[in-house]
Design a protein that fits this description.
The protein has helices at residues 14-25, 42-54, 60-78, 85-102, 109-117, 119-134, 161-178, 205-216, 249-258, 268-273, 327-339, 365-372, 394-401, and strands at residues 2-6, 31-36, 139-141, 181-186, 189-191, 197-199, 220-225, 246-248, 278-282, 291-294, 305-319, 346-349, 354-359, 376-390, 404-411, 415-422. The protein has 428 residues and is of the alpha/beta class. The structure holds aspartic acid and magnesium ion (MG).
Length: 428
């Protein structure tokens, strides 16, 4: 039994869906649970729709129509018979959104977000499943909300593991007792005990696949990507990159934690706990070997890896009453960050100062800063980049810091991190 995860890029248009079917054809006789994300940039579009709805923005209709058009176009190319039942199924999903946005929002932003944004995964999985069935690959569609149960922390649902594992056995597990073939389900979404939809955080489909792999006791999990595996840098920033052929769970967690976007940081733990190997492979060239992630390996430290986080905000805090930065006020400061759900990407302290680097999130930071300003003097530096080098040396440091003004620098045995301003960039 294996779990596959296909992300948004792998189902971004009709051609891409055909390619997924081509890959899955090779596994039609095996027991494969396939987790699929929303198509292309659908989640971003649904986020904009939720925001327009919540802010009474006039662009709501335009955004919604565009998303429907995008899905209709893909449907038209994949299902030539206009009376195919898939048209109705997808239409019904969009009608649900229509109903949701017809009335004024009653729940919190995060609640409404999850009810609306989750439609993306429901639509993509229905489309992929129907296409497979029409093209000789038998598949069964599962609603993951019957399986992955969470608390009601909307947009960041915490998984109830016991219930989820039990449900995994009773649904997909049962199915595989009697059948081979493909089980298709959604990434990213879950469900509360009151049957409200939750989401697990952006890019959470990898995590969903990890949860299901754990529950099903899979022999292997594969994340199919548009890159040949885990690379030592994002090709967005570097012209030439190297593939990491074999790394340990520990190294993968480190890389994901510092911001490598190939794998969602929560994905590894469930896999490691059951020693389930993780493969990262290319859906564009699926015969080539990707990256293997499993128990310890000596290959970890061979290739330096670079992780870039852009648009960082450096917040420097100093107690107004001139007291030292000690355990007491650190606890206080951490509490405020946690309350506003702002992740500290890097921190550093001195006698009177605590500096923290965060993603510059216009939704979250204003509230955070307002609360911090009550007891602390606050200085801000924006437009920064945070670069992490795993397995650094002087050459790699020189490479990333050249022409940059370094505001914060941190080194441990294997990791060097720099918060920097590009000197070529104008002040913002
Ligand atoms: N569709 C969701 C997102 O774009 C989840 C995922 O793709 O992993 O964040
Ligand atoms: Mg992804």
């Amino acid at each position: 039994m294996r779990v596959f995860k296909f992300g948004g890029a792998s189902v971004k248009d009709s051609e891409a869906v055909r390619n997924v079917a081509k890959i899955l054809k090779n596994f039609a006789d095996e027991k494969i649970c396939v987790v699929v994300s929303a198509m292309g940039k659908t989640t971003n579009a649904l986020e904009r729709i939720t925001k327009c709805y919540y802010d009474n923005d006039e662009n709501l209709n335009k955004e919604f129509e565009e998303l429907k058009r995008f899905h209709k176009e893909i449907l038209g190319e994949l299902f030539p018979e206009s009376d195919h039942s898939i048209y109705n199924e997808i239409n019904n999903l969009f009608v649900e959104v229509e109903w949701a946005i017809e009335d004024a929002a009653t729940g919190t932003y995060d609640f409404e977000y999850d009810q609306i944004v989750s439609i993306g995964e429901l639509a993509s999985t229905k489309i992929v499943s129907a296409y497979l069935n029409d093209n000789g690959v038998k598949s069964k569609w599962f609603d993951v909300r019957d399986i992955i149960k969470t608390d009601n922390t909307y947009r960041e649902g915490n998984v109830y593991w016991d219930e989820t594992i039990l449900n995994t056995h009773n649904t997909i597990g049962k199915h595989f007792e009697n059948n081979s073939g493909i089980a298709i389900t959604q990434g990213f979404i879950g469900c509360t005990s009151e049957n409200f939809t939750t989401t697990l955080g952006r890019e959470g489909s990898d995590y969903s696949a990890g949860i299901l792999a754990y529950g099903l006791g899979a022999t292997e999990m594969t994340i199919w990507k548009d890159v040949p595996g885990m690379l030592n840098a994002d090709p967005k920033w570097f012209d030439s990159t190297e593939k990491l052929n074999h790394i340990s769970y520990r190294e993968a967690i480190e890389l994901a934690y510092y911001g490598a976007t190939v794998i969602h940081p929560k994905t590894i733990k469930p896999l490691q706990n059951k020693s389930i190997p993780l493969l990262v492979k290319s859906f564009l060239d699926y015969t080539t070997e990707g990256t293997l992630i499993d128990e310890e390996t000596t290959e970890d430290s061979l290739i330096p890896s670079f992780i870039f986080k852009m648009d960082q905000l450096l917040i420097s805090l100093s107690p107004k009453d001139f007291s030292f930065i000690v355990e007491g006020n650190m606890q206080d400061i951490f509490g405020v960050f946690s309350k506003h759900k702002v992740t500290m990407n890097l921190m550093q302290n001195s006698a009177l100062n605590l500096s923290v680097t965060v993603d510059n999130d216009e939704q979250k930071t204003p509230g955070l800063l307002e609360e911090l300003k009550k007891d602390y003097k606050v200085w801000l530096n924006n437009g920064l980049e945070l670069v992490t080098i795993r397995h650094y040396n002087s050459k790699t440091i020189e490479r990333v810091t050249k022409g940059k003004d370094i505001l914060v620098e941190q080194k441990s045995r294997h990791t060097a991190r720099f918060v920097m301003k590009d000197l070529g960039k104008a002040e913002v």
